[in-house]
Amino acid sequence: MVDCIDVLVIGGGPAALCIASELIQRGVAVQGMASNPVDVPWTNTYGIWVNELESLGLESLLEHRWKNTVSFFGAGGSNTEDQPTNHGIDYGLFSCAKLQRYWLSRSAGMTWHQDSADRIDVDSDYSIVVGISGKRHQARMVIDASGHCTPHINRPNQKPIAKQAAYGVVGRFSKPPVKSGQFVLMDFRCDHLTAEQRNKTPTFLYAMDFGKGLFFLEETSLASAPAVSETVLKQRLKQRLAKSGVAIIEVIEEEHCLFPMNLPLPDFKQPVLAFGGAASMVHPASGYMVGSLLRRGPGLADVLAAALKQQPSLKSAVLVRQGWQALWPTELVLRHRLFQFGLNRLMDFDETMLRRHFTSFFQLPQKDWNGFLTNTLSLPQLMKVMLHLFIISPWDVRRGLVLGGKPSH
Ligand SMILES: Cc1cc2nc3c(=O)[nH]c(=O)nc-3n(C[C@H](O)[C@H](O)[C@H](O)COP(=O)(O)OP(=O)(O)OC[C@H]3O[C@@H](n4cnc5c(N)ncnc54)[C@H](O)[C@@H]3O)c2cc1C
Questions:
Q1: Ligand 1 atom closest to Cα of 33?
Q2: Does domain 5-43+96-158+265-328 have CATH number 3.50.50.60?
Q3: CATH number for the 163-260 domain, one of 3.30.70, 1.20.120, 2.60.40, 3.40.50?
Q4: Going by C-beta distance under 8 Å and a sequence separation of 6 or more, which residues neighbour residue 47?
Q5: Is-cis flag, bond preceding 226, omega within 30?
Q6: What pTM did the predictor assign?
Q7: Which residues line ligand 1 (CB under 6 A)?
Q8: Model pLDDT for residues 196-245, shown as the tens digit of each residue
Q9: In the 8-state DSSP scheme, what is residue 5?
Q10: Where are the domains of the chain?
């Protein structure tokens, strides 16, 4: 048994590194437990609207940045229409190495135990985390940041869980699959699909030019329960490329993406705190989370550090409750519910309705759709934006938004 530290963070991904570094910066005695060494390179591609990073002064963490950011929804209702919707806001991809280094350098010297948390025993004054190695670690509180699949965090057993699924390729192609210097958030054109395929769960292409002849293309299902299989996604990407006469010359990397979009919020009375995917922090309508970690990590760390400093004898359960309140205040819970409501409606939409919905969505003022996607609008603002969206939506989409269910054409 080691000395009782203040906080033990479980996990070695973005959420764990973020919250550990913010706590260390505030003088909290923190240790971590991660299944793998915390400097093992991350392989996911993490994207973000650049203004989210600029507001934090962290745009230097990007590896790629695009000015020409577009989507294709077939605005006039024709799925073959090539007219792009211009977003007018820069989009970026993180350099995973820089992001990881940013957090690791802010937590330099911190002890990370290489082990997997097997069990967490909670007492009123401290918790003990038992690793699969059998080693025990004692802390006044535990923050589980071990991702969406954690078994240590209780949440309502709400089914079904919708998942975002994507299959991506970084590679070289026989001709440019997107325009030079372009970033495509969503290409919903679907003239490459058969009528039968078009009746199934819609998917879109997320694509970008990396320069030097390299492109990243990812066939994506926004959210579906059950999740769209990788076989279907691969097949659709192949068909999409074949229709445009593009062949893959070289696959440099593949991305296999699958994560829950509508994971229920955790039980806020439980004696273990969570952060990141484990705390259901993924934006239920967009699937983004890294910006949210960077924004919400410091606030949570402020509250925990102040509580530890001002009331050294505070019971562990009280400390954790303060953490849950700071992470999920009522305002954020209500916003989350609105996003979940929106996602549930969208999951019922077929491809035509989705294209019509997104056409209206991106006709909203830029600050409104961007604030919606980044979860940076206040609750009253969000409600106003959702009402505005309803007003500018075509009748069939309005009907779907109110009544749900499959549309009738
Ligand atoms: C392929 C992919 C692409 C994504 N793209 C984006 C994007 O573009 N933008 C965006 O904002 N979000 C994106 N997301 C969503 C979200 O930001 C990521 O899922 C993010 O990685 C979640 O971070 P996390 O730290 O909570 O969990 P994870 O990244 O899953 O990290 C969990 C960590 O905990 C460790 N661990 C697990 N169990 C234990 C245990 N018992 N004990 C100790 N350690 C444990 C794991 O080894 C891992 O290191 C993407 C997700 C995926 C899967």
A1: 43
A2: yes
A3: 3.30.70
A4: 91, 92, 93, 94, 288
A5: yes
A6: 0.95
A7: 10-16, 33-36, 44-47, 116-117, 145-147, 255, 257, 259, 276-278, 282, 287-290
A8: 888 888 999 999 999 999 999 999 999 999 999 999 999 999 999 999 99
A9: E
A10: 5-43+96-158+265-328, 163-260, 350-403
